[in-house]
């Protein structure tokens, strides 16, 4: 094989490879919806919250306090979801008295740090604002209605 035919073959193979890669990228782009789903990112939530806390509260929660509060709230919500898998878990953006008590208690027990209930409640309220800002908060869903909708869909598939 001569040098020029080897170069021509290599160029042809590179062109085929680029064509295949282009087709794969195009197919993947077609499959993805135009609007992505809301994504809760702890680091972004912490930044959002810290930027909106007053200086006094920031001082009291120094050393990762906001992150610690958020992580314990996520832990609480995951635990509720696991215990009640077949029933919807009623959660409210912004926390409840029970969630604030739980978070304050766990942080005191596990980390040996005590946070004021008002500071924890403020962090949870700001987290709710973060959830709204990313489009993750919607209208409450009635669990019974949701199950009825799923059952109706299944009946429609059987026909």
Describe the structure.
This protein is an all-alpha fold and 159 residues long. The chain contains 7 helices and no strands. It has helices at 3-31, 42-52, 55-60, 65-83, 97-111, 117-133, 143-158. Helix 2 (42-52) crosses helix 6 (117-133), helix 4 packs across helix 5 and helix 5 (97-111) packs across helix 6 (117-133). The chain is elongated and about 80 Å long. The model is unreliable at 144-154 (pLDDT under 50).
Number of alpha- plus pi-helical segments: 7
The SSE order reads HHHHHHH
Query: From the alpha-carbon coordinates, what is the Rg to the nearest angstrom?
Result: 26 Å
Count of distinct strands: 0
Distance between the termini: 64 Å
Q: What structural category do the secondary elements indicate?
A: mainly alpha
Query: Hey, roughly how much beta strand do the residues contain?
Result: under 5%
Flag low-confidence runs: 144-154
How helix-rich are the residues, as a percent range?
Answer: over 70%
Average pLDDT rating: 79
Largest sheet: none
Short description:
This protein has 159 residues and is mainly α.
Please describe the structure with a list of short key phrases separated by commas or semicolons.
7 helices; mainly alpha
Q: Topology of this structure?
A:
Elements: H1 3-31, H2 42-52, H3 55-60, H4 65-83, H5 97-111, H6 117-133, H7 143-158
Helix pairs in contact: 2-4, 2-6, 4-5, 4-6, 5-6
């Amino acid at each position: 094989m001569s040098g020029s035919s080897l170069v021509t073959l290599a160029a042809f193979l590179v062109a085929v490879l680029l064509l295949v890669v282009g087709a794969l990228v195009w197919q993947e782009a077609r499959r993805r919806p135009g609007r992505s789903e809301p994504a809760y990112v702890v680091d972004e939530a912490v930044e959002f919250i810290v930027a909106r806390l007053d200086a006094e509260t920031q001082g009291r929660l120094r050393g990762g306090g906001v992150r610690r509060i958020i992580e314990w709230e996520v832990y609480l919500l995951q635990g509720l979801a696991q215990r009640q898998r077949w029933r919807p878990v009623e959660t409210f953006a912004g926390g409840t008295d029970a969630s604030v008590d739980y978070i304050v208690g766990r942080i005191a027990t596990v980390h040996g740090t005590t946070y004021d209930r008002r500071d924890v409640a403020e962090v949870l309220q700001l987290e709710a604002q973060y959830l709204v800002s990313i489009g993750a908060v919607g209208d409450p869903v009635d669990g019974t209605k949701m199950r009825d909708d799923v059952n109706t869909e299944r009946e429609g598939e059987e026909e």
